[in-house]
Amino acid sequence: NCYAKKLAEVSNLRDENRCKEMVQQLTQSIRLCKYHAKRQLGKEQMEKFLTASSALDSDMEQKFGVLLKEHKTQESKSTVKVIMWKGSKIPVENKQIQLALEKASDIKTTLPSKSDPKDKLSTLTDLLKEYVKASSICQTELLSNEGAKLRTVNLDRKAEYLKLLKLYLTFQKLKFKLDRGQIQFEELLSQVKSVGIQAEEEKGKKKKKQTKVALSSVLTSLESLMEITQTLKLTAEEVKDNQTSTEIQGPYLCYRTLRCYYKADGFQSRAEFAKAYMLYQLCTKLAKDAIEASKEGYLLKEVENIAKELPKKQYKAHAMALMDQNTKENTLNKSVAGLRIEPKPLLERLGTFNWGSDTNLSEFPIKMKGAPAKQLYFDVAYHSIAFDSFAQRLETEKKNSAGLLSSLGLW
After folding, report:
1. Do residues 279 and 264 lie in contact, with contact meaning Cβ atoms separated by under 8 Å?
2. By Cβ atoms counted within 10 A, which residue in 224, 309, 351, 400 is the most buried?
3. pTM for this structure?
4. CA distances (Å), origin 171, targets 129, 130, 135, 164
5. Helix (H, G, I), strand (E, B) or coil at 274
6. Do the beta carbons of residue 125 and residue 179 sit within 8 Å?
């Protein structure tokens, strides 16, 4: 059983599945053998059997060690490189994909040393370029494999590897895209905060315009981050990676909360207080869910800060909406008070009529007009008139016409 497990560790994807099946079968048969041995054999015979089997195991271990050495030497000589991902081995045969992945791994090692956000952004962009290149090559290989007319076992096996490799590359791309988007969002958020403080100190149209532009850029960044997290979650579910799918839920809820909050701020700045109030209400629920689902980090701190400010903003938006409604009603009453409507409403002029107007009226009661009598008479009389029969005339005409031969004088 342990040999089958070791073989599964060093083998490729297809043989690994076979070895796993062997492990399951062997465990069942070993259990059955133990059960029968306990019932039939005594203690002395059982001990003899165990000593004999241990000696056999030592011989097998030596043979297995030789086999492993041979396999490792073959693996070092082969041009195929293997990627370990989510408990699976993915062989990479294409040299261009191998080169792109090697470059990506080299760039990945430099990431922890980058402290400046701009340096991190440039490094992540370079890293994503390599993964995008590898993914496009993998896609073309997969399409050419699927387009092959004559299917073989090797082609089908290669298609499995390529699909798994594509999933791996997509997963890596989304992860680093999320990291890059997070850094960009943090920079934009700091800009929004600085612009907002300046706008409060120096009131003016330019500052208001700057805050609007900054808010719109933050909202677009948050929407792209939400989209990336959703796609990453779907990819993790496809690979059956429950850990990643649960971990990504917290950031997604944080992004959604922040988007709702800044959208409400935008409505309040445009004096649309009712919409702002409704969004602040929704934001309180989302913030609660996000705090429960998230772990420690930058996003959680931002959501916690927002959750503290939300009640004030909500009450303010509600009060402003009510005041705005009252002012609109008062201005409407004032404007209508001195208004003269011409012409007067219909209820006020029921007893009067202006004959000089261009209105066309029909006379009532309607004047009677004469209708032609004969047409009506003949239409009705048609069904009761008897016509003469023309049957005799038709027979005489047939007798008179003798035909073509008689006219020629042959008959």
Report:
1. yes
2. 224
3. 0.59
4. 14, 14, 11, 11
5. helix
6. no
